[in-house]
Amino acid sequence: MKDKKIEIVSHRVERELLPFVRKPARYIGGEVNQVRKDLHRCDLTVALCFPDVYEIGMSNTGMPILYHILNQMENVAAERVFSPWTDAEEVLRRQGIPLFTLESKAAVAGFDVIGFGLTNELCYTNVLNLLDLAGLKVRRCDRTEADPLVIAGGGMANCCEPVADFMDLFVLGEGEEAVVELANLLIEAKRLGWARRQTLLEAARGFDWAYVPQFYEFEYDGPRLTSFRATEPGLRTRFRNAVVEDFENAPVPIRPIVPFVQAVHERVSIEIMRGCPGRCRFCQASYCRRPIRFRSEERVFELAKASYHASGFDTVSLLSLSTADYPHLEGLAGKLQEYFEGRHVGLSIPSLRVDQQLRLVPKLFTSVRKSGLTIAVEAAGERLRQIINKPLKDVDLFAAVEEAYRAGWEKLKLYFMVGLPGETLDDVKAIVGLSHRLATLRRSVDGKTASINVAVSWFVPKPHTPFAWLDQRPRDYFEQAKRIIIDEKLRLRAKFLVFKFHQMEQSILEAAIGRADRRCGQVIETAWRRGARFDLWGDCFDYSLWREAFSQAGLDLEAAAQRRFGRDELLPWAHLGGPDADYLLNHYDDAMQGMPPEGT
Hints:
By secondary structure, this protein is of the alpha/beta class. Helices cover 36% and strands 14% of the residues.
């Protein structure tokens, strides 16, 4: 690695970009609590790239942690980059302005490292677009010694083969400690003048959470993988997720950046627990983010206070995969309520696991300004919930919602998933019936019917879960299910139920890409070159581009989504952290016992 000359393009941004975009505040930086260092005086420079727009990226919880940790290192500078919206991209390309960071308006290509957070399969075309806007080749084999190292982490790193041809290194698992170890290695590599290949080889040898795809290859037999091996002697072929053992004292930014454009989640966000005691069989995070660790209520309370006073945000959000399973929730809620009640600061409790403990939750927030209560029910019937390993009893669900109504909650949002293994069309219809009963339950409290927003998504089999071997339901099943739900709502005359359906083509693409092998990289690149951008955005997503890209590779997109893997088949993600296959297959077998008989 060599020192690079970093180009500052602030004057071009101010004159040639900002006057010509709809939301210039997305690109100006300078927010309260940002960190700006002299890039030329630092031993390592890192451009932290989030492959979506500013408002989405500023709501992400992982990026601020890495930003904080890296900038706490005296000799390291980290700056932020977000995907320019389509209007800004057009101006950047027309004017020849390179992709730049917010803090220094520095051209990204001059940084030592470009780091991506991969949160969803549908962000991959934005990753390629950011590299291209930076003036870099999208494929790692085409980049040179003078180019930055391109590194990725986040949840999709555990199933990263579809983008392996574009990345130099993947960080698997949790980044708080791994990013420091990696940064120190890269600083040493620069000091010693190591070449790019030597630097990556040292990382591959030194860290069991570092996957460097150029040192590994697959063999194929049609759609199946037949082997996976290292091309360099002594390299591991099975990787482990990085884990922060001391979660209590893990670094947390207590001076959150206050965005200039209203973010999707503009609040103090404190992670109170990592991992999930539940094992919902469709959820990749519950199987990949282990073990379960808690922060003490005293630590969370102090973090919330400090972050609030440094930002002025009017909501404190308690984050985890399953907040109601946090063992100190009642005590913590009492402390937060006492401190923030007079300051008119609301408390948000997302990710609630609805069980007997949840009956207490609404009571804990009786005196604090309330937002809507969100509950991920997933399936309308107890049999189906047993199959997906979410053993929620209706009696507990109804008790929790009734307590919420009594405590003053007026809004309720429910999440359901359609297409789950073992599901019947009667289960689909029951989604409306259950939602209707929960809405009318409020009548027993205050004589009114609750208005409930019901979000319906389509099941996507995810890597590292017991359902990873299964196929996704075909599109016509999803279309039939949607009609059933709409018709049942009309039959019940339930105007107080508002259903919102996730775009099924996005879910189909997610299933096709998410379990794909390295050869899918060509499909992703083709779709991007044909114009695919912001595939998570309904108004930008173009399904036809993806169908054409799959077709050009000799593949059928929907057949790829409906692929079923054999139990003994080599899986494209098997080497990338996560539980052993035997453990997942035991869960799979348990789930199959609850399946309805064939033909029902």
